[in-house]
Amino acid sequence: MNFQQNLLDYISHFLVAADESVSIAESVTSGCLQLAFSQMPDAPLFYKGGMTAYTLPEKVRLLKVSRPGPDDLDGAAEAISQSMALNVAKLFESDWSISTTGYCNPIINSGYKVFAYFSFAYKGEVILTKKLELHPKTQALNAQLYYTEFILGCFKSELNRVLILR
């Protein structure tokens, strides 16, 4: 699996220079973000670790996510993503956190759609949550890789935004 090296280098450089850390909670990307962060230069200086909680019961048990209401699609809701980001940051005691939840296959629980929610938290506050939707015929691995690259690009943008506001 190849990631855009310049993107990985940029994120690494920023976090090392800022002396800040990051942790990850994944569902739909199933470890792809953790893999990307482990490939970054100087990863041990800022990457505290991550976890994959693929099913709703594991998100509830490990990440203290509230069970969704009847209108939510099996835990793939905005609030779930936000809660995952906040709670993984607490678990790993990191400045930044990234979370993903959603579907890479069109199944009944997803309304036969392929989509992901992702959230970024910074110092105990959710600063971004977005939903990505892909064509239902997108292959699962392609969806996961697309989500991962897109989220890394958005994370770079948020790092820049925070740097400007300092």
Automatic annotation (TrEMBL):
Leader sequence range is: none
Instruction: Check the record and name the Pfam families matching this protein.
Output: CinA
For this protein, the record's SUPFAM superfamilies field holds: CinA-like
Residue ranges of domain CinA C-terminal in the record: 7-133
Xref: Gene3D superfamilies? CinA-like (3.90.950.20)
What is this protein's name?
Damage-inducible protein CinA
Naturally occurring in which organism (per UniProt): Chryseobacterium culicis
